[in-house]
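Dear colleague,

Thank you for sharing your sequence with our group. We've completed the structure prediction you requested, and as agreed, I am returning the results in plain text so they can be pasted directly into your records. Please verify that the sequence below matches your submission; if there's any discrepancy, let me know and we will rerun it promptly.
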Amino acid sequence: MGHIVLLGMNHKTAAVELRERLALVCSNQANPIHLFPYLKHVEELFFLSTCNRVEILFTCLSYNEAVQEVKALLRTHLGSPSISAAQLDASFYIHKDEQAIRHIFRVSSSLDSMVVGEPQILGQIKSAYRETIQYRTVGVILNRLIHKAFSVAKRVRSSTMIGSYAVSISYAAVELARKIFGELSDKKVMVIGAGEMAELAAEHFLAQGVPHMAIANRTTERAVEMARRFKAETVPFESILDVLKDMDIVLTSTGSPLPLLKYQDIKSRMRQRRNKPLFFIDIAVPRDVEQKVNEIDNVYLYDIDDLQGVIELNRAERQKEAERAEHIILEETVKFRDWLRTLDVVPTIIALREKAEAIRQNEIRKTLSQLPGLADRERQAIEILTESIVSKLLHDPILFLKKKAGRDSKQLFVDYAQQLFNLSDGSSPSSSALTQIYANVKKQNKFAKK
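Please find the predicted structure tokens below.
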């Protein structure tokens, strides 16, 4: 029986410097996808590289030889005085068979991510899969496994609320605004600052359907660049207070050492708004908005400490949802394992069908040669009749073999079936289905890139 193996490193096992180096080398000098034809012991291969993980998922018939071959490839290109082979090996984790299946399901469902429940990883897996299709490095096993990973991730998303709780400051800020207003599709938002957290917040606001967004930043070029990306307009930094009368939500995230928005400035401008509610979400450290602003009627201020409390609560809720997701993944892992086991009876079922069809065709020829006057319609009726008889006769033995495929003693039933129907051609009747599948797939893949 062949094996499914996953070898990789992630944010839990390797420092970011090593992950970056491995990702860079795999993208350029030693991309496993490009070097697939030279991996003699690897039958199918899938490669995933993100900012937090580098993983190689592959199938093989000889486990030890294939693992050493993949490791040797990486050591060759990563070896340097600063990174020893021992250090590299200590950073790798290896999962085999069921553990590998479960791992890829957990990764696709974002249970193994640095931020549990984040949605980006599934898109990254789909992108990596498209490259493997382009280079034809996946076959029967990994094709089905990766597609199953997609459906498992979808089931986890639809059956749990693992992605419903904000666990990043920027996301939590936008979720807070959505909870306050219910809908953001008719609200005006001003984002002050153009750093990473402000950019992420703008991205989340856009995803929530905010139609009017303004960007203000000390560096005009950066504000223009960000506004173009998020379909927003720009506001001169010195005009921030003047446009407050038109805004519903103001999110601030600058590096200013002193508050930008002060109590007296905000209070004087609330008259222009006719006391229409104004919400400030201050995610800057030091804070951009004076705390006293919260005392103004119809002005509501939330700072990063308020959001941290929400995040901690949400993180606990996500963990509860993750436990539900783990049960789904365990169930799907067992189903995929059972499908793998059925592959061992496939060659016998195919041989049984081929022998029955050969007998049918032979007997049809004999019969029709003695009935030269039959019309085409009558010949077709005989074809349909004999096909139906063969199909019904084979139904029970084939169903029996499929049911026994999940048992440890399946090979015994395969041997009996081959002897009973005289299917053995003198070669070993116990050859694995994976061996036969890989013999064809490997040959096709190896020569596809030459």
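Summary note from our side: Residues 169-311 form a domain with the Rossmann fold fold (CATH 3.40.50.720).

Kind regards,
the structure core
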